[in-house]
Amino acid sequence: MNDLELAFHANEIRKGIIQGVHAAKAGHPGGSLSSADILTYLYFVEMNGIDPADPSNPDRDRFVLSKGHAAPVLYATLAEKGFFPKEELLTLRKVGSRLQGHPDMNLLPGVDMSTGSLGQGLSTAVGMALAGKMDQKNYRVYALAGDGEIQEGQIWEACMFAGHRKLDNLTVIVDNNGLQIDGDIAKVCSPYPLDEKFMSFNFNVIHADAHDFQSLKDAFTEARETKGMPTAIIAKSVKGKGVSFMENNAGWHGKAPNDEEYEIAMKDLEEIGAKLCQ
Amino acid sequence: MSVKVNLSGESKIATRESYGKALVALGEKYPELVVLDADLAGATKTEIFQKAFPERHIDCGIAEANMMGIAAGLASCGKIPFASSFAMFATGRAFEQVRNTIAHTELNVKVAATHAGISVGEDGATHQCCEDLSLMRSIPNMIVINPCDDVEARAAVAWAAAYKGPVYLRFGRLAVPVILNADSYEFEMEKAIVLREGKDLTIFATGLEVYESLMAAEKLAEEGIDAEVVNVHTLKPIDEETICASLSKTGKGVTVEEHSIIGGLFSAVSEVAAKRCPTKILPIGIEDEFGQSGPAKELLKLYKLDADGIYEKIKQFL
């Protein structure tokens, strides 16, 4: 799949995020939009065994959305991949919906782990990677963590274990959009330097541009080829990417657009889509 | 029908030891069974499993929250993880991990905690978890089991391994008398066991307090007081039928637990009684207070959780 096709899928995923969050009148668009290209690359290129007809294949690659509040990006990606009809995105956060506010593995096929409480998802990904090693399976495990989420101590417990056990089938991606609910991560409680932290936990560390598919390809290829240690990809991203008024604005971490804002957001994304078609 | 019990106290074993030994037997039966620990393998007795199956014993270091998450991840890939630490850390420190990544997900993880209750002894208040039953009972999907002796502990571990879903198992540090008969005992999850039939009052007991309650009942019998003793090994789901049948017969209840009287056995039995068979019930357990250091036996005496203390409290109650 070429970069243009990937960009098209990513733009459709961003539309799905905005549609879902708007319909729900609640949710987390900022960190969903910042990670849309990462999930696009993972689900359309990188991960093996992703099949809506066989979502529980024991040999499939696994994805854990450790930053579970970015559920809209996971849902929109799964819908784009054909796991369920896109119309269902409009049921986000509604009573009786399979699309819970945070992902529920028992409700929605394609969700490999229920997440939402920050810091916990990475440990489950480590458990999956460990199971793969114990069973001598070839599947890989990917976990997406927020750059605010890694303020949680459990993240570093998980990293210590993954580094110690040399889990080279594990790739942690940090969605480094620089903003958390209370503002700039560097001002709230700085997790920087990110690379040195992960390196000191015996990770291979790669910097990438979260909105450049070639950069993501280089990073994930290196991660796959790295033996004897897990990889952390620090993916520099823009919170709210693609929607003009949401970009780099912490206020859009966990807020839904009203009808007027929704029209502007969808127009922004339509224009991006139109440019891709030129 | 009551069950024949051995009150000689000749043979004693800590249920943590029973746990470690049971794991080895189950390890043979279930190749997917794995055991996790957080730097306490010697104390929780998972080292017994570690010696037999080193490649299936995962020491996570002193990081209980991460251990619970790893257990959940392993379970999602088909393993049967038993995650062990002291009750304080397994259910206290890692409460939210157990709630969100094990119980809410309904993953096949067994949280097997040792060193529960006041009988931890010398380590004192920070390590004497008298809140674990309360915490685990409040989580949806969680089955809560507190075996009374070696025979019941081994049987409960075997049951948990065969059951698909989250289970909390509570074990103790102190060596306690083996009272049940291994040849005839069958563990039936939820089903409380009438160990001694009586007509004057019912003593509901759990864990090591089952033996102490049976001994207290012996003393009461010397004075013509006929106590029924019910072993409540499963606190959730709770056996409403057996509890109500006994309370309806005797008309008076007592609960005995080495756990806070808030949220544990007293609460569980009272909830049933309040709903179905209103009866006055005396709680014997740890009042709303922290423990302290001391030899386990002395602490059980101090908090009136030994046979003499239970006898005394029941006499006042009657």
Strand and helix map with partners:
The complex is a heterodimer of chains A (278) and B (318).
Chain A lengths: L2 H22 L4 H6 L1 H11 L15 E4 L5 H11 L39 H14 L6 E6 L6 H12 L5 E7 L2 E2 L2 E2 H5 L4 H7 L3 E6 L3 H13 L5 E6 L22 H19 L1
Parallel strand pairs in A: 1-2, 2-3, 3-7, 6-7
Antiparallel strand pairs in A: 4-5
Chain B lengths: L11 E3 H15 L3 E5 L3 H4 L2 H6 L4 E3 L4 H13 L3 E7 H7 L1 H9 L6 E5 L17 H6 L5 E3 L4 H13 L4 E4 L4 E3 L15 E4 L4 E5 L3 H14 L4 E5 L2 E3 L3 H11 L2 E8 L4 H12 L4 E6 L9 H7 L4 H11 L1
Parallel strand pairs in B: 2-3, 2-4, 4-5, 5-7, 6-7, 10-11, 10-13, 13-14
Antiparallel strand pairs in B: 1-8, 6-12, 9-11
Shape of chain B: globular
Give the strand line-up of the largest sheet of chain A: 1-2-3-7-6
Q: Major beta sheet of chain A, specifics?
A: 5 strands, parallel
General form of chain A: globular
Please, how many domains of chain B? Answer: 2
pLDDT < 50 runs, ≥5 residues of chain A: none
Number of helices of chain A: 10
The CATH topology of the largest domain in chain B is given as Rossmann fold
Which strand order spans the largest sheet of chain B, edge to edge or round the barrel? 3-2-4-5-7-6-12
- What is the beta-strand fraction of chain B? 15-25%
Task: Tell me about this structure.
The complex is a heterodimer of chains A (278) and B (318). With 278 residues, chain A is of the alpha/beta class. Chain A is built from 10 helices and 7 strands. Chain A has one domain: Thiamin diphosphate (ThDP)-binding fold, Pyr/PP domains (Rossmann fold), CATH 3.40.50.970. In chain A, the strands form 2 sheets. In chain A, strands 1-2-3-7-6 form a 5-stranded parallel β-sheet, with helices on both faces. In chain A, strands 4-5 form a two-stranded antiparallel sheet. In chain A, helix 1 (3-24) packs across helix 4 and helix 5 runs parallel beside helix 6. In chain B, the strands form 3 sheets. A 7-stranded mixed β-sheet of chain B has the order 3-2-4-5-7-6-12, with helices on both faces. A 5-stranded mixed β-sheet of chain B has the order 9-11-10-13-14, with helices on both faces. Chain B has a two-stranded antiparallel ribbon with strand order 1-8. Chain B has 2 domains: 12-177, Rossmann fold (3-Layer(aba) Sandwich); 193-317, Rossmann fold. Chain B is of the alpha/beta class. The model of chain B has no long low-confidence stretch (mean pLDDT 97). Chain A binds chain B through residues 58, 105-106, 112-114, 116-117, 119-132, 134-135, 153-154, 157-158, 160-161, 164, and chain B through 34, 55-56, 58, 60-61, 63, 65-79, 96-97, 100-101, 104-106.
